[in-house]
């Protein structure tokens, strides 16, 4: 999993997180499952992120076969690098 973090404008929009899941991850069903899991996991981390953060999370092909716990660990590790 790759993470791109940008310090966004402090316009009151709060944290924005986007997910990129390419066709290399799998067919549409698999890609959507990965995105749903990542969105759910990201909600748990939003309170600990800087208020104006703009994040882009790119799922790698291994995400298709990763367990929910494995995705949680990877996402936590990536988001821990974002400084408040």
UniProtKB/TrEMBL annotation:
InterPro entries: Ribosomal_Su5_D2-typ_SF, Ribsml_uS5_D2-typ_fold_subgr, RNase_P, RNase_P_CS. The keyword RNA-binding applies. One of its GO terms (molecular function) is 3'-tRNA processing endoribonuclease activity. Its EC number is 3.1.26.5. Signal peptide: none annotated. Keywords: Endonuclease, Hydrolase, Nuclease, RNA-binding, tRNA processing. NCBIfam families: rnpA. This is Ribonuclease P protein component. It comes from Nocardioides marinisabuli.
């Amino acid at each position: 999993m790759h993470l791109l973090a940008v310090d966004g404008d402090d316009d009151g929009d709060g944290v924005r997180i986007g997910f990129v899941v390419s066709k290399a991850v799998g067919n549409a069903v698999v890609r959507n499952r990965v995105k749903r899991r990542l969105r759910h996991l990201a909600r748990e981390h939003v309170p600990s992120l800087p208020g104006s953060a703009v994040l882009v999370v790119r799922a790698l092909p291994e995400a298709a076969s990763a367990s929910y716990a494995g995705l949680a660990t990877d996402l936590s590790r990536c988001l821990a690098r974002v400084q408040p």
